[in-house]
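go over this record:
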Amino acid sequence: MYRKLTIPNDVFFEQIQVYLSAGKSVSFFVKGHSMRPFIYEGDKVTVKAIPIAELKNGMIALAHADQGYVLHRVVGIRPDSISLAGDGNLSQVELIENTKLMGVVQKAFRGDIELSVCTNSSRVKGLMWYYVRPIRRIFKKIKK
């Protein structure tokens, strides 16, 4: 049985960074809606640090962006920076320095069900979802 505890993000993620830097995996429950429709608020993710050379487009990364800590999809990799975007966001993209990458999602669960968010096909689906953002924006305007 889990006990819900609320602590400031900075304190929480500083501790997460300590564990990830030590080569350990860390699990936590997602807060926010920026990764819908693939990850929902309340889903549990397990994150592990990886070498930057192993990072691939489409992976879901935990990073320290300018506006705070984000769990977003990798949509661009450059020699010194990474572009991240939330699956639920229609326009925002964060550009972070490689050193701000904390880790990538290794597993995700909705209750007892493991979500398929770490496979090659799920990475491709996530990137396709990112690339159809302009069409998604149009549908959102029509829906209103």
